[in-house]
Amino acid sequence: METGIEKVFITECPRDAMQGIHDWIPTDLKVNYINQLLQCGFDRLDCGSFVSPKAIPQLKDTKEVLDRLNDKGATKLLTIVANERGAEEAVQFGQVDFLGYPFSISETFQQRNTNASIEESLKRVEIIQNLCVKSDKKLVLYLSMGFGNPYGDEWNAELVMNWSQRLYNTFSISELALSDTIGAATPALVEQLFTAIIPELPQVKLGAHLHTLPQNAQALVKAAYDGGCRYFDGAIKGYGGCPMAADDLTGNMPTELMLDYFLQHKIETGISQTAFDQAIVASSTVFL
Fold this sequence. Notes:
The protein is an alpha/beta fold. It is built from eleven helices and eight strands.
């Protein structure tokens, strides 16, 4: 682990927090909440998705939300896409900086999440990456099931390493996020994977997108940080989870617990505590 004062980069994920909620969240509430988050100083906001409204009805108003956001300042915006059509829509929005694509190393989950095989998904990645390059956007690949597999598909640390290297070597992907879609990660495994992969891919920003129970959150943050990770995803109060992963949703990494950990250890986040406290209050109007 590096020594001295460090800086980490936090992505807040209101999209991930909202997507599995059954009751409709009015567009006005979404816009107001995301505008409050824009004042906090996050590195990025994962703020919406361009996917079929049949699959994720809660986010069918992403285009309107994007058009109504205030000046985003230094914060960059990321939207999730699941196929070429979604990517073609997303790149039309100048305010969107990043497209995120969930690439699963589990064949079963890739089918469940994007209705495609891993082989078909590789073709999608190529097309989406080309669209990003032409549109001056960047592609972030989320390695779903990065810390385990509940479906009986092959899983081991070497497989994660091999896929990370293959995706970088094949498509020049500069950002990967190891994603614990089902809350399977242990601190030992998290530290092991980041420690192994980061030195092998120095050109890649390797992030942690962890779903967890609150009592395990700070141990996982410590493990990722000790393994060299400096890019972290979270959602205020741990709201949300992946509706395609399981019936009982494991929540997102609670952002406030991450920030507490970094504050305690004098690790810079760039987050305004005052604006963040206001966002916590605002979250209670969105997530009832």
